[in-house]
Structures are given as C-alpha cells and as structure tokens.
C-alpha cells in the first residue's frame, strides 16, 4: 500500500507541474491537462492551415461533457 500511495502522490505532483507548464506555454489559456476542449481550442487558434484546424474540431469532448460522463458512473 505505501507504494500505491506514493505513486498517487507522484501523479498529483506531475499533474501540478504539467498544469504550470501548460499555463506557461499557452499564455494562461490552459491550466490543466484535463482541459481537452481548451487545449484543442488553443491549438486550433495556433494553426495557420484550415485543414489542420478541422482535424482538431472532430472528437474533442468539452470539459463539462467529460465531467458529466464521470458523474454517470
């Protein structure tokens, strides 16, 4: 059990570090790796090619859609 608890703590530390880096890289547009819609929107806005932007709009669940799916379980 100690290994499981330590792994969970490390995962949380990584999530915080990744969130900081995402925030930095996106100029504050994305704060957490779980914000799929915000990540897709930010990437969409960065791409100059319309065909590349279209790829990002297919299949990206909104953050609130993910939360609703988790509540159904």
Walkthrough of the structure:
This protein is mainly alpha-helical. Residues 68-73 have low confidence and may be disordered. It has helices spanning 2-25, 36-46, 50-57, 63-72. The protein has 4 helices and no strands. Helix 2 (36-46) packs antiparallel against helix 3. Helices cover 73% and strands 0% of the residues.
Give a short synopsis of this structure.
This protein has 73 residues and is mainly alpha-helical. Helices cover 73% and strands 0% of the residues.
List the main descriptive attributes of the protein structure presented here.
73% helix, mainly alpha, 0% strand, 73 residues, elongated
Blueprint (SSEs and pairs):
Elements: H1 2-25, H2 36-46, H3 50-57, H4 63-72
Helix pairs in contact: 2-3
Which structural category fits the helices and strands? mainly alpha
Mean pLDDT: 81
What percent of the residues sit in helical stretches (DSSP H or I)?
over 70%
Q: Number of DSSP strands?
A: 0
Number of helices: 4
What is the approximate shape? elongated
* Low-pLDDT regions: 68-73
For the biggest sheet, the summary is:
none
Order of helices and strands: HHHH
Percent strand equals under 5%
Q: Supply Rg.
A: 15 Å
Distance between the termini: 25 Å
């Amino acid at each position: 059990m100690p290994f499981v608890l330590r792994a969970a703590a490390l995962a949380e530390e990584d999530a915080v570090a990744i969130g900081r880096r995402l925030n930095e890289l996106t100029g504050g547009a994305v704060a957490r790796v779980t914000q799929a819609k915000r990540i897709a929107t930010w990437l969409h806005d960065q791409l100059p090619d319309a065909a590349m932007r279209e790829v990002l709009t297919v299949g990206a669940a909104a953050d609130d859609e993910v939360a609703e799916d988790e509540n159904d379980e």
